[in-house]
Amino acid sequence: MISINARMFLTRRRAILIGAVVTIAAGIILTPLILTLTLPPDINAVKINLEKVEVENPSPEEETANLLTLNVFFKVENPTDKTLTTSKIDYTLLANGESLGNGHIDYVDIPVHGRPQLLSGSEATIKSKFEIPRNDPSLTQINIGNFTSSDINWEVEGTADIESGFVTAPLAFRDELQRSL
Q1: What is the pLDDT of residues 53-68, one digit of tens each?
Q2: Are 149 and 61 in a shared domain?
Q3: 104 with 88: CB under 8 angstroms?
Q4: What's the number of domains the chain is made of?
Q5: How open is the CA angle 76-69-94, to the nearest 5 degrees?
Q6: CA contacts within 13 A on the Cβ side of 99
Q7: Which of 2, 23, 65, 71 can pair with 54 through a Cys bridge, CB separation 3.0 to 4.6 Å?
């Protein structure tokens, strides 16, 4: 009588259902481990450097808005063995020790295949437009009359969200460009 009840309990349909439930539960439980395996263990080996800062010639709109536009170029080196991307970079730009404000590059709304690709063992350049009002007090501190990119010690510090697969990790960076004498 016991063997008949056990045989009725474990029918083929129930065995398949139990197997499916166990597989789904194992997937849910192991998801954090699977996701962390897709991020390279040496994510801190990725380096973000300030490549150059250029003063852009003002457009008529910027001239009437009294804005100064800087092009900030970041060189991102990926020495890891995985291709990575970035979803955003937040940074503070300093000129001769004076903060010019905060900058932001955002790729969150762009699909992954449209974001900057940080290929394995290579480097990529990312450009950011940085606008600052010409009457900003920090510009008077750095002598706006001689405002060319090579006359200034540029510094940048911030964080970038580095992504691999389904995992995002923040990466802090700090770099500077010394004045060429």
Answers
A1: 888 776 666 566 677 8
A2: yes
A3: yes
A4: 2
A5: 60
A6: 7
A7: 71
